[in-house]
């Protein structure tokens, strides 16, 4: 099984980004152990609590380095909010008093920015996104915002984790709406950091609609969505003359949950189109069967990419009929993007993976 391990590319970095070793190489081998620590923020990570330690100043007995957390996800979220509430209220009051003193006794609502941080590599951030991050009062960030990206946040800004993962939501969507509204009404410059692009499977449209209805100015700073960022990393053109005349983004999550994708029409099995599946690890076996049932060739090239564009990137290449088995064998974890279509063959790494499999079969 061919796995692609990404190392830092050659690049000339802007001064505001951390420099990394200019090394570029490709290593393909059989997977034998778990990948290194995720570059993304995880609810139960020590790093997350160290970064958000300000929230717990109201409760000195809480030890950020121990992370002795309750196992029940529901009680964890309720306990988390209860611990944060006193400090959040204090911060709101400080912000209101500051804005009122600056505005002659009147508190003018602040701005909310929905900022896309791309698929993980901080070098893919826009200059505008970095500038806004450095000038924010409060940043609410998701699980798929990488720690390297959070390192670019201004030193005076407060960070608040509002991430979601399967079986655990640190905040409900309604609570996130209220947090954005409360701090904006207090005059704060609030940044909502989202992995990828805020308006591609990021629920940014819902947050924008809610705030606009409350009279709060909202600006969207686009980010490189995982589809284009990760495909470019692998040399996969999402469209290509004579091979793929369109591209379709699918979510592997149903709004009501369950094991099936939200919707797969017969048109999704178009051999002249490229399919990109977000959040599709759990539902991909079902999706693959549906696509083949609707006529997509079992030999269609495909790839599954875990933690794309980061140093921990791992990639599995296979034909559509075999990809589910290889994903399971490699123990890929979220976030993993899946790309299906003839364009996958155009990646230079597809040929390497084919040659490796041929060698393994002959051995």
Short description:
This protein has 363 residues and is α/β, with parallel strands linked by helices. The chain has helices at residues 46-51, 73-102, 127-134, 147-150, 173-185, 204-213, 226-234, 284-293, 320-330, 348-362; strands spanning 3-5, 112-116, 138-141, 158-161, 164-165, 168-169, 190-194, 218-221, 246-251, 273-278, 301-306, 314-319, 336-340. Strand 3 (138-141), helix 4 (147-150) and strand 4 form a beta-alpha-beta unit.
What is the succession of H and E elements? EHHEHEHEEEHEHEHEEHEEHEH
Which spans have pLDDT < 50 for at least 5 consecutive residues?
1-35, 55-77
Question: What characteristic shape results from the CA principal axes?
Answer: elongated
Largest sheet: 6 strands, mixed
The helix-and-strand class reads alpha/beta
Radius of gyration: 22 Å
Oligomer: single chain
Number of DSSP strands?
13
Q: What's the total helix number?
A: 10
Beta-strand percent range: 15-25%
Give the spatial strand order of the biggest sheet.
Answer: 1-12-11-13-10-9
Distance N to C terminus = 14 Å
- Mean pLDDT metric: 78
Helix % is 25-40%
Family: Belongs to the precorrin methyltransferase family.
EC number: 2.1.1.107
Protein name: uroporphyrinogen-III C-methyltransferase
Organism: Canavalia gladiata
